[in-house]
Amino acid sequence: MVRTTFLNDPNAVWLKGNLHSHSTNSDGKLTIDEMRKAYIEHGYDFLAISDHDFYSDTRALSDDKLTMIQGFELYGNATDGKDIHLHFLWEDAIEGIEPNTKVKLPERTGEVTSRFSYDMRKKGAFVQLNHPHWSMLASTEVEDENPYHAVEIINYGTEWLENTGDGSVFWSEMLYRGVKLWGTGSDDNHNGAPLDDMYSDSFGGFTVVKARDRSPKAIMEALFNGSFYTSTGPSIYDFYLDGDEIHVVCSPCERIFISGHTRPYQRKLGRHVTEFVTKLKGSEKLVRAECMDAAGRSAYTNPIYLT
Ligand SMILES: [Zn+2]
Ligand SMILES: [Zn+2]
Questions:
Q1: Fewer CB within 10 Å: N-end or C-end of the chain?
Q2: What pLDDT digit, counting tens, does each position of 132-174 carry?
Q3: At residue 219, does pLDDT exceed 90?
Q4: Cα 184 to chain center, whole Å?
């Protein structure tokens, strides 16, 4: 039996996108049109304008070059009062969220934040915990029972700004505990610097979905099902289990790691490693892969859960 998180459909398409960005509707420096143009020019297939506490309605802007995903980023609080940012994404409309309108919590407490997030999940939104390391959040501060579909493990904007955009350890710790979350990656760009500048926070972290087609519905389906990988550089072309054999196929990398719900990890090293075939050790509750290139940039698959 073959198992994979990637959509098993010969007609499926791979689509590259940014799920997290800010326009002039919040603290971003580029207009939505400027953002669209920039992402089309850089070969992206989809984009979410996720302004702070504001839903920028971009549904009318979807075309055959760039699919627009709907959403916003919410200022919330963790249970102990720490600032956290929550992400909500959807394909078309969510009851109670008005287009081009502020969305604000009535009160910034952990309880109100959690209730709002569960409510959005119930109404059909994809719910994500953003940049946990930037929020100085420890994984132990997130309960096993939580409203999230995913945690943002790559946040290029905060990585570039303060070296705090890597949520991969946070994610590993959640997975070790048996909490099932997908891992996404994005730019979280504000464009305070020109796009071609060294200080630009665009085009560094992305999510690639394997979807039925380019529609917002198909892209959201891929997100909900974990049919995607996230990366700061390398590409992953396949990741699956054939019986007890693990297969990873990627662009040329130096290291491929396979990990489970605990150590030990398996690895393959080399100058131009593009494939790793190995066997399950037998006790894994999940398997996932990380492919790292010579520049230290990583691509992460989602876990294939075995229990
Ligand atoms: Zn944020
Ligand atoms: Zn943001």
A1: N
A2: 999 999 999 999 999 999 999 999 999 999 999 999 999 999 9
A3: yes
A4: 2
Output the DSSP codes for 102-132.
E---SS-SHHHHHHHHHHHHHTT-EEEE--T
Which of the 8 DSSP states describes residue 141?
G
Q: Which pair of tokens denotes residue 204?
A: 């560094």
> Using an 8 Å Cβ cutoff, are 288 and 258 in contact?
yes
Q: Among residues 107, 114, 128, 124, which one has the least CA distance to residue 20? A: 128
**Sequential DSSP letters for 212-229:** SSSSHHHHHHHHHHT-EE
List beta partners, residue 183: 151
How far is ligand 2, taken at its centre, from the CA of residue 22, in Å?
6
Q: Give the Å distance between the CA of 3 and the centre of ligand 1.
A: 34
Say whether pLDDT at 251 is over 90: yes
Unique residue bearing structure tokens 């709907």: 70
Centroid of ligand 2 to alpha carbon of 52 (angstroms)? 7
Instruction: For 90-134, write each residue's pLDDT tens digit.
Output: 999 999 999 999 998 999 999 999 999 999 999 999 999 999 999
pTM of the model: 0.97
Find out whether 204 and 195 touch, Cβ atoms under 8 Å. no
Q: How confident is the model at residue 81, as a pLDDT? A: 82
Domains and CATH numbers, the chain: 2-232 (3.20.20.140), 234-307 (2.60.40.10)
Ligand 1 centroid–CA 302 distance in Å is 22
Using DSSP, state whether 255 is helix, strand or coil.
Answer: strand
pLDDT at 80: 80
Measure 5 CA to ligand 2 centroid, in angstroms: 27
